[in-house]
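queue> holo job accepted (5-amino-5-deoxy-1-O-phosphono-D-mannitol)
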Amino acid sequence: MCGIVGYVGSQPALDVVIDGLSRLEYRGYDSAGTAVSADGKLTVTKRAGKLANLREALAGADHSDTGRSGIGHTRWATHGPPNDRNAHPHTDCTGAVAVVHNGIIENFAALRLELEGRGHELSSDTDTEAVAHLLEEEVAKGASLADAMRRVCLRLEGAFTLVAVYSGEPDLVVGARRNSPLVVGVGAGENFLASDVAAFIAHTRDAIELGQDQVVELRRSGVTVTGFDGKPADVKEYHVDWDVSAAEKGGHDYFMLKEIAEQPRAVAETLLGRIGADGRLSLDEMRLTDDELRDIDKIIIVACGTAYHAGLIAKYAIEHWTQLPCEVELASEFRYRDPILTRSTLVIAISQSGETMDTLMAVRHAREQRASVLGICNVNGSTIPRECDGVLYTHAGPEIAVASTKAFLTQLIAVYLIALYLAQVRGTKWGDEVFAMIQLLGTMPQKVEQVLETVEPVRDLARSLAGERCVLFLGRHVGFPVALEGALKLKELAYMHAEGFAAGELKHGPIALIEQDLPVVVIVPSRARPVLHDKIVSNIQEIRARGARTIVIAEEGDEAVAPYADTLIRVPAVPTLLQPLVATVPLQVFACELATARGHDVDQPRNLAKSVTVE
Ligand code: M6R
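queue> job finished
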């Protein structure tokens, strides 16, 4: 959370920084601010609210456009309410140092007291401001900004990315990171710092990953990286394999709509190149050997939010195809319950961003307990895959809307691939069975496309329900996590009460919620599992008898449900385990349309941020 940009080069820094922030606004939009260095002084401008407010302030202000170095920030508030005063950048007593920050400085209260004791006047409620004053003290002693940053970082506890400018060194931007993302963009005669490559992709696709506890000095002429101890650090350079068009709306009103539409391609990309010349599934990038995978006796999946729902679906596939016991745990709960991990436990961490702090902490805990950890991530080079023993990347492309859509579908593909690979190496499925399932997975892009082509009635339905107070979602088997995901989407986008239930659990309490005309979405399992299917048909009748308005998602050709559906949404018939790939899509469209009808910005729902880098 919080997006950070730094720039040194020959272009007007303010333009580059604002453009970068516009691509990082998904990380937080409580306030935004910039600091530009020119003519031996810093010009700081900041405003509460979205970036548009800052743009407006800059348009009317007498700010210098001559500065060629600067920093910017878009905030997701942690310490202090989202107002102008708490917006970043924060400055020291003299206005010579400005700093932006992502993360939480846990010992800020003690530092603040100490600074106030030495006569500093702090004007915000943030943890960040202490850093500006600590840097002030170091540069006053004669330290360069980079040395000051290294010394200050050694005093900080918690997670932080810091980026600072100092009027005394106008052609320099200094960044530091611990447990929080920061990447370097390497251009020709210009260099960039950002929380995410999206901020500088319009200028360069050459990037450098920064390691833990490193400080970077950014000048026009180049980039220097050291540890907090000042020793030169090894860095990893890489080339970003997508371009600026992937980070733009491409004619859609919202990124979320674009990302929903991109799902067939994202699924296809994630499946690409997985079959070897011998017809066997091959996951070369995974880094774990077949011997290591044969030794596993238990799998634990850790993830948050939508990624957790992908994990819940994975459990059904893994246990069915591999006969390995699989637990799924909210990453935020995992390390607090003393999970039983051994060297033969495989922990799978699922995270779109690869930066979610709860998931990262679960990964670290699992590795400390000597378990093998495999990441499923979308963002190349992010922290979680770097700290895992192995990784399977999803190839969804950048996901910018806060609500996860294409990342979810590609996470499902990744877990299906891992489950099938485990089945292959452990011999719990015959080669031809694995191959047949991979062939079926190969048809999924087209099935998802089919859903998208027929989804217009879902939009009409969503608009007609915009005035409702509550929607319930029911499912069985893999349909249960789909119900949870449908409810999560509606909560986060439409700010409506929405809950997902296992249909069989309804009569143990939640059925009391059913009242006349309450909309209830039911995900009906494939008829290929008659036991599941017939049970849910009975559940639909039970809620309808109590007045519910039933919105039924069922496969083509399933006529048994038709008499009990007030609205029937058809999805292509696919094997039971793969049904989430098609059944989730109408629910994404439903939430997006309903939220839009209620007047909400679906890309930036209130109180949220795309990447949750605090616990
Ligand atoms: O980046 P991650 O996949 O680790 O993010 C996990 C959750 O924060 C995320 O899925 C969140 O629940 C989404 N906003 C849901 O749409």
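queue> Residues 304-307, 351-353, 356, 359, 402-404, 488, 492, 611-612 surround 5-amino-5-deoxy-1-O-phosphono-D-mannitol (CB under 6 Å).
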